Amino acid sequence: QVQLVESGGGLVQPEGSLRLSCAASGFTFNNYAMMWYRQAPGKEREFVASVSTNSNIISYVDSVKGRFTISRDNAKNTVDLQMNSLKPEDTAVYYCKTRVFIKDYWGQGTQVTVSS
Fold first, then answer.
1. Which helix (H) or strand (E) holds 77?
2. Mean pLDDT of all residues in the chain?
């Protein structure tokens, strides 16, 4: 079965950095695009970034452009999100997501808290 497991969240000061990682299993990883979403308290889940199967198409929500970088390693079945210059408004639970045969799969999420 499809499984996505996020790691790397934590507490960081404003302008700090974190690297999230998502380990995938149960499907042919290099055949599917991968995405990161986030959900802040009291807000709807929002798209953060996506990467195509061979990393030639990458997209970001405007609020993270120039600060976050998504990358994937098809040999290791992982997708990472490097987050730099973090702001308090980046505080959220971050989720890894993929869509396999029209069904969406989500990880359990990892908490990122940006606070001094």
1. none
2. 97
